[in-house]
Amino acid sequence: xxxxxGISLLFLAVALAVAILIGAKLLxxxxxxxxxxxxxxxxxxxxxxxxxxxxxRPAVLGRLGGVRVQLIGAGLIGSLLLLGMxxxxxxxxxxxxHDFAFVLTMLLFASVLSVGFSLLxxxxxxxxxxxxxxxxxxxxxxxxxxxxxxxxxxxxxDLARDFNHMARSLEEAAEREREMEQARRDLIAAVSHxxxxxxxxxxxxxxxxxxxxxxxxxxxxxxxxSATKELxxxxxxxxxxxxxxxxxxxxxELEMERASLHDLISDTLSGFxxxxxxxxxxxxxxxSGDVDPVLMNPPKLQRVLQNLISNALRHTPADGTVLLxxxxxxxxxxxEVADTGEGIAPEDLPRVFERSFRAERSRTLAEKExxxxxxxxxxxxxxxxxxxxxxxxxxxxxxxxxxxxFTLPRV
Length: 411
Known about the structure:
- The protein has 411 residues and is α+β, with helices and mostly antiparallel strands.
- It folds into 3 domains: 1-141, no CATH class; 167-251, Orthogonal Bundle (Helix Hairpins), CATH 1.10.287; 255-410, 2-Layer Sandwich (Heat Shock Protein 90).
- It is 63% helix and 11% strand.
- The protein contains 11 helices and 7 strands.
- The protein has helices spanning 2-25, 34-55, 58-61, 67-92, 97-140, 155-210, 217-248, 261-279, 298-314, 365-369, 377-387, and strands at residues 257-259, 282-287, 294-296, 321-329, 332-339, 392-397, 401-409.
- The protein has a 5-stranded mixed beta sheet with strand order 2-4-5-7-6. A two-stranded antiparallel ribbon has the order 1-3.
- The protein starts with a helix and ends with a strand.
- Pfam families: HAMP, HATPase_c, HisKA.
- Residues 123-175 form the HAMP domain.
- This is histidine kinase.
- Its main location: membrane.
């Protein structure tokens, strides 16, 4: 309250100073009359003006009703202020009663016109605000795509544009939430299926050993070896879920260092050669001499390479080729894993990095027999590459293979 009074007094003081200055310099007001005029304006206009400024406050006018009533009230208060000033000025100048009545009639007519113009101006403004209110009501009822018409170029039009932008953002967020919920359900279903298989196999093998079915050391060793493989597969699934949960939660923090990408690729290829030979697939590596050093987290980047190569081997038939290539391209290092498999269908290509996505109709025999996974490898690869500050993508020509590539910032 005190702050409002202080601002009002300051405003009136500035208005009085401006009026006296203009009257003296431009209108030729005699300097001898300046004190009397200043006193008249300060007493009459100041008193009425202070009351007007206090009444015009939203906390006061807001009690009278909506926007229409508030605009009419503001126009009426302005007219009363002008009327009060003219009454005080007329009495000070000793205008006759006839002239005073004439001036008063003109002021009353002007006040009525002012109220009418205020009402005419308030009606469209109130209608536009009502449209915003109805749009907000539709949003609360769940109609997230509701938009309102944008009329004019004032603050209400800006409010309508912001409202429409908010409505579109809410609709997009809701759609993303629905997609994430569906992806979560698909992931749970896929993981539940893939966890059940190694668990059931391991349980069967252990029960067979416990029942004494393996009556010789060779059979027992074979059963134990199979159980170990199933447990290793189960461990990989759990690790993938844990890694993906950290990526989704934004808790993945990588410690970056200057390291040799050439050595990392060489080690990764060496680890996959026995598997590639078993599948009858040729594994080829090509690394240009100027790629090193690279700013990276070697264990995480190796996991990306492992996921991509493993995915390529699963989709490449015997006598096929998997190529791992790395080369320098300006400020980034370009790494790609290409295969000569069956490729990816065009409708599936945009979804290959989604969690739990597996194109069943294009799975090869090698994929069905070797480490089917839960469809998390490519999703984890994308999260790890993005955490490195790079980007990952894929291109494919059905029947001629697929190519996954990513970039890393150079040191």
